[in-house]
Amino acid sequence: MKLHLASLATSLARAATAAAYAMSVRNYCDPLGCSRKGLFVMKYDMYEVNAADGCRLPAIPGMVEFCMDWLVGKDSLGKPRMHYRFKNQGKHCMREFFHEEVKCPGDFDGTNCTASYFNEVTCAW
């Protein structure tokens, strides 16, 4: 099932209003590796994030840590996971709940393009 970006953003925003945050990631992979571009959805805003493996400080107000685990940090179900922290808060976690193939944009022609969708879960790692 292919989702249009606007309807995806609306769906993720609705999910985020239910008290949890959500995230979608576009994965552009070729034999040399993957480029991963994320959209982190909060109750009233959305932010583009670098969703590559590892930890970083994203340009999201108040967020002090953003870590993606694509390779070695999969959860007990074998799904990619991530965690993040806001200033003066504990760790929050997300897990991939859906993954699909998508059409590659022009500059990524010839690569394997997929979309991953994450929702908030109880931290167990």
Question: What is the structural class?
Answer: mainly beta
Number of strands: 8
Could you say how many structural domains there are in total?
A: 1
- The quaternary structure here is single chain
Mean pLDDT: 83
| N- and C-termini, Cα separation | 31 Å
Helix content: 10-25%
Strand proportion: over 45%
Task: Describe the largest sheet.
Answer: 8 strands, antiparallel
* Unreliable sequence segments: 1-7, 13-19
Cα-based radius of gyration, to the nearest Å: 14 Å
Question: Element order, helices and strands?
Answer: HEEEEEEEE
Quick structural gist:
With 125 residues, this protein is mainly β. The protein has one helix at 5-17; strands spanning 22-30, 33-41, 46-50, 54-56, 63-69, 81-86, 91-101, 112-121.
Tags for this entry?
single chain; about 120 residues; mainly beta; eight-stranded antiparallel beta sheet; 8 strands; about 50% strand; disordered N terminus
List the helices and strands and how they pair.
Elements: H1 5-17, E1 22-30, E2 33-41, E3 46-50, E4 54-56, E5 63-69, E6 81-86, E7 91-101, E8 112-121
Antiparallel strand pairs: 1-2, 1-8, 2-3, 4-5, 5-6, 6-7, 7-8
